[in-house]
Amino acid sequence: MDSYAHRHPRLLGNLGNIALLRIAGELGLIDIRLATACADAYRLYRKLQHALRLNGAQYARVPHADVQPQIDAVRALWRAVFGVD
Questions:
Q1: What is the pLDDT confidence band of residue 8, given thresholds at 50, 70 and 90?
Q2: For 59, which DSSP code?
Q3: CA separation for the pair 60, 50 (Å, rounded)
Q4: In 10 A of CB 20, how many CB atoms?
Q5: CA 59, CA 48: separation in Å to the nearest integer?
Q6: How does pLDDT run across 35-62, given as a tens digit for each residue?
Q7: Are 42 and 17 in contact (CB under 8 A)?
Q8: Cα–Cα dist 34/59, whole Å
Q9: Are 27 and 4 in contact (CB under 8 A)?
Q10: 1 confidence band (pLDDT: 50, 70, 90)
Q11: With 70 as the cut, is the pLDDT of residue 65 above it?
């Protein structure tokens, strides 16, 4: 997002991923629905990671099939921003 920071100072704050996704969507830098889907995916990943750690898991790994829609959203964002998978 730094290539847009000179036009959108809101991107320069010490903000987290979810806030930056929301702002980028609001500014039209990425599709707002995609920004929301990726923010939701991030929240879910963190929730699952936290639950696994609380239950004593050595690694916070989740089967891909359990989070496929979230994987798809993040890959779509990656393609939108970088043009590749």
A1: confident
A2: S
A3: 8
A4: 17
A5: 11
A6: 999 999 999 999 999 999 999 998 888 8
A7: yes
A8: 28
A9: yes
A10: very low
A11: yes
> With the CA atoms of 61, 67, 71 and 77 taken in that order, what torsion angle do they form, in degrees rounded to the nearest 10?
-120
Q: Which residues, including other chains, have CB under 8 Å from residue 29's CB and lie 6 or more apart? A: 1, 4, 8
pLDDT at 80: 92
Mention every residue, 6+ apart, whose C-beta is less than 8 A from residue 60.
Answer: 48, 49, 52, 53
In the predicted model, is pLDDT for residue 13 greater than 90?
A: no
What's the DSSP call for residue 67? Answer: G
Nearest to 35 by CA among 77, 82, 79: 77
Reported pTM: 0.83
Alpha carbon separation from 24 to 8, 30, 31, 59 (Å, rounded): 9, 6, 8, 32
16 token code pair: 């987290």
Residue 77 in tokens: 């964002």
